[in-house]
Batch of 4 targets.
Target 1
Amino acid sequence: MIKSRLKTFTAVLLLLFLFSYSLQELSLIYPSYFPKPVYDFKKSPLKPSTVELGRKLFYDPILSRNNTISCSTCHLSNQAFSHAGNHLSKGIEDGIGDRNSPAIFNLAWQKTFMWDGSVVNIDVQALAPINHPKEMGEDINIAVRRINKSKEYKTLFYRSFGDSLATSERLMKALSQFQLTIVSAYSKYDKVKQGKAKFNQSEKKGYQLFKQNCSSCHKEPLFSTYEFANNGLSYNSELKDYGKWNKTFEPEDKMIFKIPSLRNLAYTYPYMHDGRFKTLYEVLEHYEKGIEKSPTLAKQLQKPIIFNLKEKEDLLAFLAALNDSVLVSNAEYQKIK
């Protein structure tokens, strides 16, 4: 009788612990010079149990049709959550996606997602790759049914939501919660901003060149406005990709793509929406002599941006100071072992 009561009491304590854990809230950690996040954390606060669940789901191929592809397949933590070396995303059964896999950090400061901005809420963004026939190729409802058969996930969902039932909404929420915690703010640039380091002469000159030529689209400290622009790329006839126009069919959206951050460029090559440029030298060459004129071309690019060889070296030295080695080695972002 005593043993039975003790077991019951222990079980009740465990349930109370799990429930209290699910109610805890996390604060997003970022530097004081960062702007306020656009994601509404008051409406949807971070919870450690949900972040843990999202981290588990992010690395689990259970979300793909044939259990071979996870979110992390195209967003590797040691590559600033990009798919370095691959022009386009790769999916199930050797499928090739439509665009280069974007790096996913500092998402809390972004209002729209995907290269064309077709997703306006990070809490549902994961539906796009899960449903894409060449990426994860799965019906979200089937994935949810599969998760509900897992004892491990039953426990994790209970910790996060107070009961063990997995739903598509909860699954999406968990994935977004984990991704929202991925903050890149530990580069040399950040140390300089905090007074903990100084730029060398080349970086200092490159910083001035950046401010004169690049900062209107790649605004500090996130190094993007996360708006959209036509940066003069030629149309990729193989992919038939006109950017936002593919969704809106509005003339003003032709060749308009989301402006990526310049942080972590060492880890996120190749560059542009279709990964056409292997190196940053190729990128600079594009802005010097590759810009294609069109009615939607960004006003900042009506004239080519020309640097001499020394200026290019200085600019690239500054861009290297935006690489965040802490981000790519952070165990909290890696697969749970």
Note: The first strand starts at residue 228 and ends at 229.
Target 2
Amino acid sequence: MKAEDFYNILDSLHDGFYITDVRGITVWVNETSCKRLQRKREELIGKSVYDLEKQKLFSPSITRMVLEKNGPVSFIQTFHETLQKYIVNGRIVTDEKGEPRWIVTHGRIVDQDFSYSDQQNEVEAILHRYTQELRKFTVSQESSTDRNLLIGESLEFKKTLEQAEKIATVDASVLITGETGCGKNLLANYIHKLSDRHNKPFIQINCGAIPDSLLESELFGYRKGAFTGASEKGKIGLVEMAEEGTLFLDEIGEMPLHLQVKVLQLIQDKTYLPIGEVQLRVANVRIIAATNKDLRKLSEEDLFRSDLFYRLNVLSVHIAALRERPEDIFLLLQHFVKSYNNKYKMNRTLSKEVVERLQSYHWPGNVRELANLIERLIVMSETERIQLSDLPEHIIRKIEQPQNIIENPSLRKYIDSVEKNYILNALEKARTTRQAAALLDIPQSTLMRKIKKYNIQSSQYWRG
């Protein structure tokens, strides 16, 4: 959403909105507040609420009360020009680093037909919704130079962001699904930044990158002398580090079963037990998990706890693979070219042929693969304009179509070319030759012979 659109929405409302910086200087006020205060917007912008309060334009200043309390305030405020009373709520809106950025107040006229508590609850709900919108605008503005910015205009991508924004308004566990490299960690961070926990820690751990024997101590910590080799000072776990914030469990499908039951306990009871301790600790954390695996299928095969899956799957959001939203590729190309040109002080551009080829590529590594490729092209290209010849072989190569059999009289050559392309495709998707062999449903030894036969040099995509 553009700033102009956001302010137009606030201007159309019957409730008053007043925004200041952290010094109490007015930065924006909507039309309703201007009418109630009987002042033009330009008469208010740039003025201190402390001075306006002294001038008895209103009393008390809710913004001042928020700043003094360093937290939300709800109070009855009087506008002295009309002697009208309003229920006014004030909140602090922070930036993505958790630092106070704005103070937002929202006021509604006191209605004698409803109780104060009912009206207060309604005002608080409205203010919560619009402060989240303001926070969303802040996050998008401050992340505009981020190489990992969530970018997309496709219906699939917009739906994903809308779901994430709804999820951010409630304090429940979340499951994010999607292929490797599609940005699950970015979406988790986005949800955190839009939530009420946005100014608290966002702690993440990749469950597949840490040995099973160490994962429990990383998550829950341990007391001193809990086991042989343990630190004499003990260890603070990530759960404790994430207190009042968000704990992001990436690749949760890789978590061993004996730890899954402890994560389930953390989600259900908000308690956990560090290694070597006998007293349960209480945790105030939100859990966001992510996976590129089918957890439902794994639970049916007893490889993942079904009770944990159902607990996580109450609120879920899926990120579509890049090949399923090709209209987003051009936007991402523009963003990454600009980003890496700025980073490396270059002025590279992509030729039309390169753009077309990249838009038709299936991107098994999704946005991460695209970002890494553009960075490599920006750095390694010999000319300012990047050409097809600068692209890696696996992207330049065109997969043969069946009609080529007619053009090519050698059936053996055609079969070999299809087999080679099929193997390359598996190697691009897999992390290891063992995984690639599993995808192809052939022994690893057979795959290694075929790699040698076709002289495939793809070490950047697979390991032994």
Note: The CA atoms of residues 177 and 333 lie 24 Å apart.
Target 3
Amino acid sequence: MEGWGIALIKVVFIWTWTLIIATVMTWVERRGSAMIQDRLGPNIAGPFGLFQPLADGIKLFTKEDIVPEKAKKILFALGPVLFALPAFSAYAVIPFGDKIIIGGKEIILQVSDVNIGFLYIIALGSMAVYGIVVGGWGSNNKYSILGGLRSTAQLISYEVPFGLALLAAVLVYGTFSLREISLMQQGTFLGFLPNWGVFKQPLGFILFIVTAYCEANRVPFDLPEAESEIVAGYHTEYGSMRLGLYLFGEYVNMYTLSALMVTLYFGAWHLPYIDMSQFLGPVAYGIASFLVFFLKVCFFLWLFVWVRWTVPRFRYDQVMGLGWKSLIPLALLNLFITALFVQLSI
């Protein structure tokens, strides 16, 4: 029962923490865009507009939930749930720190250390597109259907290089467990570089971060919800908390992908050239490992915002061309080179 109790506490903590981060990111997005564009941004609701996400949440909860007359009611209701649930569930296999020892009991800072962590992430990432397609089709709106079709095409085009980039990392580390991969990134590489995945898989990291932006439907790959072309795409007809689930799901997906990037390529909770466990107590070390991991994730979350308000959206043919003509050949080349190096034990 104690094991189940600890697991339940970790699940509640992760879900609550993820919700808080997704809420705060709505404020960061607005303040960040204002800073980049030399505007003020939210500055009325609380100091520095910090209560703006709370005001938005109250608005979404209290607005009337309108269902279009000609919408397919079941699909319309199912779409947001299918989109948000995988985003919230994917974080279960990502370690958010090393371990903490409380009362002589060692607690791993990860909800579930499964040996198929990669496959779990890819499977749930593939499921999210059903929420977009079902919601777009169920809305019975031409713009929503176009957004759903675009999302399907993007998934087919970019899931392949996304998976191939992950497969190259599996070849390097020889495991599907994200915790084991994190532990392997301690120390140095080639005698002077941090033993991080980005130095072992530089091309793999570039492929992963590009495809991650597409997986999250973020600029320059936000074709499924391009406001200037198809109004708001797949969630055009949504309002109230149904729309909130789509918006929250997007930010949770950004958080999960950023955490996965840190886990695979940037040493997880490890600091370069420093072993925190040597000079910190068991409790302090657990907290420090969580904070280091979170600060790294914050950098990539800010990068999502920075790119959105800096880079213009690609044309649809450019997105498809980049996926099929550039990323997939590069991913196959990276996989071949990685397999060759592993085989030769270089």
Note: The mean pLDDT is 85.
Target 4
Amino acid sequence: MLGLREGTKVTIEGFDEETGAITTPIYQTTSYVYPLGEKYRYSREVNPTVLKLGEKIAELEEAEMGVAFSSGMGAISSTLLTLTRPGSKVLIHRDMFGRTYKFFTDFLRSLGIEVDVANPGEIVEKAKVKKYDVVYVETISNPLLRVVDIPELSKICKENGSILITDATFSTPINQKPIVQGADVVLHSASKFIAGHNDVIAGLGAGSKELMTKIDLMRRTLGTSLDPHAAYLVIRGFKTLKIRMDVINSNAQKIAEYLQEHQKIKAVYYPGLKSHPDYEIAKRVLKGFGGVVTFDIKGSMNDALNVMTKLKVILPAQTLGGVNSTISHPATMTHRTLTPEERKIVGISDSMLRLSVGIEDVNDLIEDLDKALSSI
């Protein structure tokens, strides 16, 4: 659903004017009585609970309008199907979530959309070479955690008349506000850090009223609409997002530094490390370096999978962004849809693990990793 921010007036969650409830009610209804409910009509189109969530993401991203979707991929598909058409030219980078990458390279290309792919760290330079209708980036890439210089890229996009769409799931509105830095649209898998408890699937988008109105109409047509109860859970997650991210940022930095010195670790990928290729960019565009730490162990795929099974506090699971730490194996989980050749180009090895750091005591997490690594 949509939420508007007009001028300097920002909508926030207050209390329900009809009942006095201090939390947003869950409007679990399909339709509304005419003429009283004419504003909403049908919950696939507009629902009061979901509407409030749209207002919240618009407020946090300092955008004119926010839209909520049934999932992160729902946000991506609805947005791209709105802003592209046969003959459109789109630029993406290769190091992104596997399902997103396949949506561009398989599905959009099948519609006659031209999709160019930049290698890791090269999208800013590639955007200068040719005029694109849309440039799509993950602000922090999955799983290599490359950091895109959004202010610089936005300047190039504005000069070329390109729409810059950012997926800021890994950075969150706490660590980065892409709209403020010049992006046209920001998207989130709200299932991750924003909701924060691994109990809801949802997507969010924010941007100008002009663009988001069009995207919202596509959402209504595609049916990528969010359930009101799920919207309520995401709104609840927003209330603790700043507190959680402060702890997660701190924990992840300490764990990255620990892993970097571990004798059984070959490489650590984390924007907060001076060894990271985008460290200087990260310091400039991010307020915090995020909760994901990716690392390569010295060993085989079986060794990496063995480490996952030996962990006791950290859970092996294909998700991220929750209060509890989780770990996954990109080659066989999040990026399994990529061919071995594609994974090699991106830099995803069979011995790579992606750790999503939670809010547990950091010493417990380090001890858990240390014991699991000692098994290989």
Note: Residues 241-260 form the longest helix (20 residues).
